[in-house]
């Protein structure tokens, strides 16, 4: 993850997409949204609510709509990057500068802004139970200090660590992850605290 502190820094690190990023940013700046940096990338907000993000990757540059599920998408431009996982977020990818239809992009952006003003958003569903994977349970049972530290973490941080272990497909990866997070748990640090 890039640790940019300004939009200019983000743009300078993505020289291969400079022109496309400038075009998209130019369109976004014509709106009433506020430009910020979150998670190292440009994010555009209305009333401190994330509406659109701007990103650059190896094979494409794109914008993502945080509540894109509510967009009409008559032109069929939007993708759900993680089908079955991502509920509201939708991406629009551009592989060349010529793919950017400024009027169409602005139409989608204006619709996203209006949807945000209208309060259309998917609220995250919070699960009450935390399923702790067996590898983590064994480690907690074997180390009283680790168990005490884990229990003192917020439910959110406990869930983050549990999911981090559980999502590894190979046992070796789960064990490597467990070794990595044990000192963090002992220090009372959440898995992704450095990004918050």
From TrEMBL:
Residues in YdhG-like domain copies: 17-113
InterPro entries associated with the record: YdeI_bac, YdhG-like
> Domain of life here?
Bacteria
Give the transmembrane region(s).
none
Q: What is this protein called?
A: YdhG-like domain-containing protein
Per the UniProt record, the source organism is: Aquimarina atlantica
Native organism taxonomy: Bacteria, Pseudomonadati, Bacteroidota, Flavobacteriia, Flavobacteriales
